[in-house]
Amino acid sequence: MLTIVIPTKNEEADLPILLESIKKQTLQPKEVIVADANSTDRTREIAAAYGARVVEGGMPGPGRNRGAEAAKTDLILFLDADVELRDSEFLEKSVGEML
To answer: Which CATH number characterizes residue 72's domain?
Structure first.
């Protein structure tokens, strides 16, 4: 139903916070894609540990585009790595409004 695409470049500090907040959502995305722009830190390792699919990206537009091309769903949500979804029903409410 929903793919989340996150463009990244050296986001090892922020990415776990976002991915943890996604795990707490009442509606889980079908997939999370991290479109990484050649990070030199642990960004890719962290993404993989959370079950995200990592694709080659760019910042930020090319990363979003590459993530969207890799998505397997019709609905795509683009998030920056420094975002935290504090409302556990955010995805459920947002998707409900789109359908």
So the answer is: 3.90.550.10
Q: How many domains does the chain have?
A: 1
Element (H, E) at 7: strand 2-8
Residues 53-89: pLDDT tens digits? Answer: 999 998 889 999 999 999 999 999 999 999 999 999 9
Residues 4/33, Cβ–Cβ less than 8 Å: yes
Q: Are 8 and 63 in contact (CB under 8 A)?
A: yes
* pTM of the complete model: 0.95
Tokens of 22: 């996604």
Inter-residue contact 79 to 6 (CB < 8 Å): yes
Sign of torsion, CA 52 7 85 14?
positive
- Closest alpha carbon to 2 in 87, 95, 70: 95
Q: Could you list the residue range(s) of the whole structural domain that residue 26 is in?
A: 2-98
